[in-house]
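Moderator note: this is an archived Q&A kept for reference. The question asked for a predicted structure of one protein chain; the sequence and the answer are reproduced below.
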Amino acid sequence: MRQTILSVDGDAAVRSGRNDVLRAAGFEILETGTAADALRLAFEHQPTLIVLAIELSGANGFAVSKHLKADPRTAAIPVLQISRDESHRRYLESLESGAEGYLHEPVEPPVLVGAVTALIRACSVKATTGRAERDAFAKHTLAALIESIPDEVWFADAQGKFTLANPSALREFGMSAPTLVGVEELAKSLEVFRADGTPRPVEEAPPLRALAGETVRSQEEIVRTPVHGELRYRQVSASPVRDAAGNVVGSVSVVRDITERKRAEAKAEESRAKLEAALESMTDAVFISDAQGRLTHTNEAFATYHRFKNKEECSKSIAECPGTLTAFLPDGTPAPPDMWALPRALRGETVTSTEYTLRRKDTGETWVGNYSFGPIRGEDGAIVGAVVVARDVTGRKKAEELVSRSQQTFSELVER
């Protein structure tokens, strides 16, 4: 296959003479006299080398070189720049532009052909060597990565045999090497269940599905592995490995043991259920928020206290409450939203037994609440939420007021 040279020079006569020399040396020629066409032809035809005059209309050869080297499509194409200016400054600019070679006019035909041939050979060797080095680096990097990750990694060939497994996989199954064990054979030897606890058929094994061309993502299974001897929760992802033609030539599977995570989730769910049961058994209104003031837990008493029909009607964050309620401090002055119980708790205040008077904006109903509140802190001491407990003391306040009035009336009678 003949090699193609893109010849770029704004002087048509000079370009023609240069092209004749290169054709005589056996090269195919593409040619243009403008910078814009030079970039377009380079992108479209991917020439073997570009002979580029510095003196061009529109943009000089240095700018063209920089564009070529900045674009991944043309960065690897060697550029030989030719200038009519003999100054050293031009040579330095050529180096800065990324060109592989630089000559100044006049250029004798043998020098032109020799320079072009040498640059093509040098860049071809460089590309080949670079590719081999990159391939070797990628191979060693991948091997080191697979060896070091804690997840199990399994490779199977097109015949359904495991050909490679990393140390994590080998330890889990008490193997020293995969020894070409069959995927189906291994699957049949294990006690495996779906995430819902039903037996998992062998044909649903992710490596087998990947060999059939399917990609499996984060499938949860329960497996009794030889080393642990207990049922373990595992999350499996598997993908087919294809050749350049798109044919499946193997599969790769990655398995993560999620048993501890599942146990933690179960404990968290148990704790949540206990908390919900405790909250629902309380007659006081209880509401718990996260650090942003979003209500994460409330009880039915919370809905009753705030005069909602049920919890579903309740506000979902402290920011929504001023749209429904007006609050007053014990002295009767309106309480701004940032002085309500929950915002104060989120700022770090801990208060026991303080009173607010609340009024519904839609109905005008008013009641008095006794509040205790405080922040919830994480292990590092940072505030991660707040808890507020409120009790409706309207009846008690009215009774106290009635007693106070009665005492006052009695005192007045005695004084008479």
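Archived answer notes: Residues 109-148 form the longest helix (40 residues).
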